[in-house]
Design a protein that fits this description.
426 residues, alpha/beta, 20 strands, 4-stranded mixed sheet
Length: 426
């Protein structure tokens, strides 16, 4: 069993790599997050932007599974299924854990008003109800996907929680109350008939697949430094994208995991608020945005960009037990004369080779850079690692030495097959 995890602040190219690996998998499971993170995959010139459905859906031999650690907006799910079906993709294989939690209209409303209320201290959420849904899960008042199979249970739970939510919306945020009858009608009459055939005991399904020797891939959304526990709190997501979250989000114990593949861009991006030591605020940052098309798949927000940060990757290698790294978007650096790599941080005269645990220190660190020459040629047409220019290979080897984990795959373009397989690492 293989886990694919982002090692930076998201948008590293997990969808593309998962799609590549899915050709050898019988089951692909999404283990956390919601529709606040998108995967973009280019197949034969056609772009697929997936938010909830696992990337493996594009292969007819693969069963895509939405695990119990995911929060599901049925509106988005069904729109995505319809989009894929219209493009000739069979979604009848899709399974959803009955223990996954539902995103409800009050979650989205609370997300919007809370971010406005925080003002300059906002967390930069996508306002899609992800955080409030996970908060209700932790508070044990959430509605789960399986609840739409029992109208009586669904309505009882909805009435209890909506009474409290409406009181908060009205008294704290001066918003109109939401109507329970309208919500119940949408979820039970409109969504349930279409979602019900997908609901399954996914824990048993995945275990059964493993017991007969099938290959299983676990994919997360977001990334290591957006992890609720290991990330740059509070500027994080509300779940655990780290490899440990793959076990809790699927019901598959860690002893069954064979490989943990970390995905990293050849530079770094971040969306929303939070610290970013190597961030560029100049024309070089703009060039990375333009060349890398660094805008959110779902939100269309411009991403913040910066030089590669080896300190982050060392930390990610530790907390995820990475066995290898796939480096994406190397081709975006084709035009740069000089490339910088952050090899350490400095703050108050002290050097840090790993991410400092205290947020006040991390917010104040300055990057320590080493410079490497650029290769100044187009990598996008390369199909074999032997064609990789010497300076591009030197860059990859330098990163590998810095992070201490083999870089086995290097991406040189957006297409499904634009990955170079390094021979025994870089």
């Amino acid at each position: 069993m293989t886990v694919v995890v982002g090692t930076q602040w998201g948008d590293e190219g997990k969808g593309k790599l998962t799609d590549l690996l899915a050709s050898e998998m019988q089951v692909v499971v999404r283990y956390q997050g919601g529709h606040n993170a998108g995967h973009t995959i280019v197949v034969d010139g056609e772009t697929f932007a997936l938010q909830l459905v696992p990337s493996g859906v594009l292969y007819p031999h693969t069963v895509p599974v939405i695990g119990n650690g995911v929060v599901v907006d049925p509106v988005v799910l069904l729109e995505e299924v319809d989009m894929l079906s219209a493009k000739g993709i069979d979604c009848s294989r899709l399974l959803i854990s009955g223990n996954a939690h539902l995103i409800m209209p009050y979650h989205q409303e609370l997300d919007r008003v809370t971010e406005r209320y925080l003002g300059k201290n906002s967390l930069g959420t996508t306002k899609r109800g992800i955080g409030p849904a996970y908060a209700d899960k932790a508070a044990r008042v959430g509605l789960r996907v399986q609840d739409i199979l029992d109208a009586k249970i669904f309505r009882e739970k909805l009435d209890i929680v909506l009474k409290e939510k409406n009181a908060v919306l009205a008294k704290v945020y001066n918003r109109l109350p939401l109507d329970a009858d309208e919500i119940a009608s949408k979820y039970l009459d409109e969504y349930a008939p279409r979602v019900a055939p997908m609901i399954a005991d996914t824990v048993s399904f995945v275990h059964d697949a493993l017991e007969v020797g099938q290959n299983v891939l676990l994919e997360g959304a977001q990334a290591t430094f957006l992890d609720l526990d290991q990330g740059t709190y509070p500027f994080v997501t509300s779940s655990n994208p780290c490899a440990g979250g793959a076990s809790t989000g699927t019901g598959i114990g860690p002893k069954l995991i064979d490989k943990v593949i970390g995905i990293a861009k050849a530079y770094v991006t971040r969306v929303g608020s939070g610290p970013f030591p190597t961030e560029l605020h100049d024309e070089l940052g703009d060039e990375l945005v333009d060349r890398g098309h660094e805008y959110g798949v779902n939100t269309k927000r411009r991403r913040r960009t910066g030089w590669f940060d080896a300190v982050l990757l060392r930390q990610a290698a530790r907390v995820n037990s990475l066995t290898e790294v796939a480096l994406t978007k190397l081709d975006i650096l084709d035009t740069f004369d000089t490339l910088k790599v952050c090899v350490a941080y400095e703050a108050d005269g002290k050097r840090y080779d790993y991410v400092p645990y205290h947020q006040s220190v991390f917010h104040a660190v300055k990057p320590v850079y080493e410079e490497l020459p650029g290769w100044k040629c187009d990598l996008s047409g390369i199909t074999n690692v032997s064609e990789l220019p010497g300076k591009a290979r030197d860059y990859v080897q330098f990163l590998e030495a810095q992070i201490g984990v083999p870089i086995d795959l290097v991406g040189v373009g957006p297409g499904r097959n634009q990955f170079l397989r390094m021979q025994g690492g870089a």
